[in-house]
Protein 1
Amino acid sequence: DQQVKQNSPSLSVQEGRISILNCDYTNSMFDYFLWYKKYPAEGPTFLISISSIKDKNEDGRFTVFLNKSAKHLSLHIVPSQPGDSAVYFCAASADAGNMLTFGGGTRLMVKP
Amino acid sequence: SQTIHQWPATLVQPVGSPLSLECTVEGTSNPNLYWYRQAAGRGLQLLFYSVGIGQISSEVPQNLSASRPQDRQFILSSKKLLLSDSGFYLCAWLKTRDTQYFGPGTRLTVL
C-alpha cells in the first residue's frame, strides 16, 4: 500500500507560469514533509520541507502548502523556468524520524 | 562541509556476476546512511539503512546485501546479479532530522 502518492506522473507548464505539483498521503503519523528535485542520472536534491505545525513554507520561487485535514501537500514554483524541468519527489516522515517514504515522482517539463 | 561520494558512476555487469557499490561520507561522524534504488520510470525504493558500524536494517528482501565496515562507509553488494537488479542506486545520509542528502548515484545495467 502506497502511503505517499503523486498521482500525476507528468506535468507540462509554460515558462513564466506557475507549476503546481501535488502529493497525497495516507499515514496520519507523518509529521514532516519534503520535496526533492532530480535530474536524470543524478541524485535527488533537497528543495524544501515543511513541518506539520505549519501550513505553508516559502523559499524563493518555491512554496510548499500542507493541508493536514486533506492529507495533501503541494509544491508551487513561480515563475517556472526551463531549468526546473526535472522529476520531483515528495517524501514524508513520521515522528520516529529519519525514515522517509517517497512518492513515485512527477516529471515536470517547463517549455520555453 | 559535508559531502557524499558514490562509485562507480556507471557499471555494466553480466547476469550472475558479483556487485560492490561504495558510498562514503565526509565531514560528519556516525551518520545514518541509506541505500535506495530507482528502477526505470519508478520512484525511490529504500533498500537498506544503517545507524552505525555493523548495524544494517533491510527493508526489502532480495539478493542484495549491505555492510558498514567503517563509520562513514556504506557498501551495497550482491553475490549474483539478476536482470531485475538493473537501476539507479543512490546512497543518502541523514543531515538533520528527517532531511536526507543524496549522493550522485550509480547507474547499474545488468545484461
Note: Chain A touches chain B at residues 32, 34, 36, 41-46, 49, 89, 93, 97-100, 102-105 (CB under 8 Å).
Protein 2
Amino acid sequence: DSGVTQTPKHLITATGQRVTLRCSPRSGDLSVYWYQQSLDQGLQFLIQYYNGEERAKGNILERFSAQQFPDLHSELNLSSLELGDSALYFCASSVDQGLRVTDTQYFGPGTRLTVL
Amino acid sequence: GQQVMQIPQYQHVQEGEDFTTYCNSSTTLSNIQWYKQRPGGHPVFLIQLVKSGEVKKQKRLTFQFGEAKKNSSLHITATQTTDVGTYFCRNSGGYQKVTFGTGTKLQVIP
C-alpha cells in the first residue's frame, strides 16, 4: 500500500460525457502527478500540481483539466469523452521540496476508465 | 523535448536466465529512477541512481548509470516468475519535465 488513494476504481461511461477522478496523496506529500496508461502502453505524463499550483504540463488534452485543493487532494476532469480516452489513469505523489529534488513517486492503484 | 527510450520493448526468458533492459535518453539526465509495474498493478519505485557510472545492487537486480549520464541499465540475474512485469526508467530531479521511459515488459516462462 503506497498511501495514495484513488477513487473510483472503475468507471464506465458513454462518449460525450464528463467524469471526475479523485486522488488523495500520501500524508505530507505536496506534489501530485496524473498519468494516463492505455492498454499495454507506457505512462503518459499529463500534469503536475505542487501545493495547489500547476507546476508542469505534459501531453494533456484541452478536454482534460485538473486542480489541487487546499487539503492537497487532486481531481482530474475529463470531458467530451471519446472512445480513445479509455485507459488506466494513475495519480502519484511525492514530497517534492523544491525544483531540484530527487522526487520518488508513489503511485495510487489507478482508476480504470471505459468509454463506450 | 527529452525522450527516454527503453529496449527491448518485450522480453520472454526461461526461468533462471538473465535479463537486461536498457534506458537511453536524448539528453543528459540529472538522476534516473527505476520502477516496476506488476500485471494489473501500479508502478512501484525500485531505486534511484545519481552519480555518473554509479552501480547499485538489490539482491538479483543490478542497476547502472552510464558515464555520460545519458543511459542506464537494469540487469536481473537468474530470473524468477516473481520478476514478471514491466520495468520503467524515468528522469528525476533537475528542472526537466517528468519523462518515463517506454517500458520493457518481461515475461518469465517457468
Note: Chain B has a mean pLDDT of 92.
